[in-house]
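Margin note from the TA: students keep mixing up input and output lines. Inputs are the sequences; the output is the structure of the whole complex. Example:
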Amino acid sequence: MLENLRIALRKQKKLILIFFLTIFLPALTLSVFGVRAIRNERFRLAKQEENEGRRAARFIKAHIQSKLEDLNRALDEIARDPAFIGKDYAAIYERSEKRFATDPLIRQAILLYRNEEPLFPLLLVLPDQKPADSRKAADASLAARMRRAEALEFVEKNFRAAAALHRELHTTASGRNLKAEMLTGQARCLQKGGDYGEAARLYARVASEYSDCLTPSRLPLGILARLQSIECFKRTGDFQQAVKHGLELFRELLKKPSALSEDQFKTYLSLAGEALDSLLAGEKSGQDSEEIRKEYADLKRLQADRVKEWSAAGLIRKEIIPELAGTLSQSGGYSPKPYRFSKNVGGSDLLLLAAWIPDRDGREAAGMLGVQLDSDYLLEGVLPEALGNVPLNDGAEVILADLAGRPLSGERGTSAALPLVTEYFEDNFPPWKIELFQAPAKGLETLDLRRNFYFWTILTLLVVLAFGAFLIIRTIGHEMEVLKIKSDFVSSVSHEFKTPLTSIRALMERLVDGKVRDGAKMDQYFSIIAQDTDKLTRLVNNLLDFSRIEEGKKKYDFSDTDIVRIATEQVQGFKKEQVLAGPDIRLEIAGEIPKLRADADALSRALANLLSNAVKFTPAGKTIRLGLSSDGENVTLEVEDEGIGIHPDEVGKVFEKFFQGRNALAHSTRGTGLGLTLVKHVVEAHGGRILVESRLGLGSKFSLIFPIKT
Ligand code: ADP
């Protein structure tokens, strides 16, 4: 087997070399180029995707930065306003309020002058809250009457008289704070005197008319009055009014938290909350109270935000203002360059933009005007705005993350571990980065392989390669098969020659030696020798015929031939050959058999082959029938035996050259596998056809049908 393979490979060396040089090598080279081209294409697409991503990220960055720059410019402009240079607080408040209070990007503003206390929070602190000392403003006679009112109230406990005096003082006093104080005193005295209805009304008046005034101890008068009015309304049993004022107070506190200190804010808020809670707990539910409860719940939600703002303001006081003050004190000359500052406090970034305030002659920096940026608005307002205007690939996702990589906007939804593009802000302000992720499902897969020219080229080459390899393997397989047939054939033919030759030689030796004297015995020996010689002749004839057929040189000599005579001669010949016990051979001729235009020799040999097969495969005692019949059109010659038969799966192959069936290989007498091939050739050369029927173990029938040509 291996030897055959080696020989086959050697024989097909040229073919293999040609295959290698003309198909394999070019295919391989082209495939390598194709794969590289695909890789390049992928790389190009990846690059393109990255560029698109970078463009998108830069667009987002530019959008956010432009917002900050706009704000910077506005800040700078305001900081150079004469109001700021001249420290005109009223104008400062007015300008700041106008520009900053409505800007969603700004959370709070800070004003800082060299060597002065910082003004923070700048927004929502009203200018006239800077308290004017009410007592100082009062003249001497007024002061004496005020003292009298106090004595009436606190010492003599004549509340009615005290209230009347306060009322009088309220009308005569000048100055808002003093007027407010007197009105409050009147209300307080009425309250003490038990006239809650009137007291409540007066307190409400103070709260609405003098909400911006402070008490002598600098407490917010409006708020205190409101608290008292609630108390008084409660006393009179007017729950509706009490609740109304409670809510008013709550709302006011939440709207203007920055006017108070953090502690004040919290205290008043909890007082108002408690008052409201107790009022609402006692109230019977009705249509009105439902609405009130709803409003209260809304306000409570607002309260949570305000509390957060307060703590943020606290942080700014602690973390940013000292930093800013330090920068200001170290700053040299005035520069229009904005100051940007960020600090991570408690996990979130405090972002500050500031502009320098020049001094009067514009040389030194006299102060700073800063704003705390609302980073939530940057993330939830500005970023989506930018995202809405930038074209993004499918599956692309943009997030803003801090420098440590913690996402600030949204969650990383895609499975991509690394961002395709990362973009940082200039000067790291804000100290964030823009990360663009591309879902892997998109990305490189955008390369549509099926439409790729190289892909098809490679596929074609692979198919060609596979086909070439298949052909080569087939050729080699075929070559190996031929080699096997050849060697089997040589061994079969040698065997076929050897058996009769050995027998002839042995018999001849005995005859020549004169050892056989008995005439009958001698006759038997001669007949065996004749039989073996016939066998050898048949064999040689077969081989010669076969080689002629293979070379296309086989010629037939047609003449009118008596097939009956040929059949009779062959049957007699075989019978004569039968020295040992064998099957019985019978010739059956049905009626008149016309002569055929045929090659008598070829017909004889064909018949001899059929008979020799029948004899070979039929045991002694069984019958072989040679039948001749004619239907006027054809002459049919049948050789039917009762032998071992042919395996059903081999019946179709018996006419193939070199074919030897399993039954033959198991049999002691082997053949060459050429007999039936030759028979078929002869029959077909005569325009006839050959049929075979066989049943394993029961026998076979070969029918040759020759047309009668006139
Ligand atoms: P060979 O010359 O070796 O006999 P043939 O071509 O005549 O070869 O026959 C081919 C094969 O057909 C045989 O090896 C045998 O298996 C089968 N065969 C032919 N004739 C008969 C038969 N009469 N009975 C059984 N098998 C037969």
